[in-house]
Fold this protein.
Amino acid sequence: MIDFLYLVPISLGLGVIGLVAFMWSLRSGQYADLDGAAERILFDDERDAPDAPARAEPDLTDQPDDR
């Protein structure tokens, strides 16, 4: 029975710490856009796609003119 004198304040303290952490996350905007991440995965952005390798243009300035 004496254990309750230790466990009740510890559990109340952990509850208050959890409530403070939850209130901080609300105020800092952690839950501002819940649908954005779920919708972003569905759309393929062109900027994320790997670029096609560029075709090398021949440099015509170094070739002799045989005309």
